[in-house]
Design the sequence.
């Protein structure tokens, strides 16, 4: 009789340890895969050329991005996520320009824009009447937030690649967000 109680106790201990191992192992595996899709904020502008010319798969979506970032460009922030498996991928470049240059860029991109929004993020924009997905403010000071109202988001193009009944389930969009007051421009491209 004592032997059966000891066998039961041993079995319970082994099952508990096995369950703990499965839970812990799945957590570690999930953590390993999810860290590859995290956005990387890059301040080393030497990586920009590699990302723009080699890592981004669709050159048409980033034609409006600067070809290169000069050493004297101020406050450059780059956010990039390659998108693994079915995760979305994005590229975003934020930089300061002179107020005159910002006004020139604003005039240029307003003429090309298919949609215009004031502040907000992709969730806000997609849920407006006839709205389309845009992007989050990945290069913002806190990352992944909404654009403040001072930013004018100009969508240069967006393609719905979803299936009937699942509008915008998959797709891509790209454009610029410009804050005239801060003399900043954010170039963005996103695929999901």
Sequence:
């Amino acid at each position: 009789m004592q032997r059966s109680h000891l066998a039961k106790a041993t079995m319970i201990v082994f099952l508990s340890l096995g369950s703990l191992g499965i839970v812990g192992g799945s957590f570690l595996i999930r953590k390993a895969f999810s860290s590859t899709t995290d956005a990387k904020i890059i301040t080393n502008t030497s990586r920009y050329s590699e990302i723009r010319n080699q890592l981004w798969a669709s050159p048409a979506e980033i034609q409006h991005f600067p070809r290169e970032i000069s050493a004297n460009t101020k406050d450059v922030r780059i956010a990039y996520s390659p998108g693994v498996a079915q995760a979305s991928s994005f590229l975003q470049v934020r930089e300061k320009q002179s107020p005159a240059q910002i006004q020139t860029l604003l005039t240029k991109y307003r003429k090309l824009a298919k949609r215009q929004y004031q502040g907000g993020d992709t969730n806000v924009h997609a849920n407006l009447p006839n709205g389309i997905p845009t992007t989050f403010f990945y290069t913002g000071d806190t990352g992944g937030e909404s654009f403040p109202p001072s930013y004018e988001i100009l969508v240069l193009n967006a393609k719905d690649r979803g299936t009937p009944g699942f509008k915008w389930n998959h797709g891509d969009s790209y454009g610029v967000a410009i804050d005239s007051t801060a003399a900043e421009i954010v170039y963005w491209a996103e695929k999901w």
The radius of gyration is 23 Å.
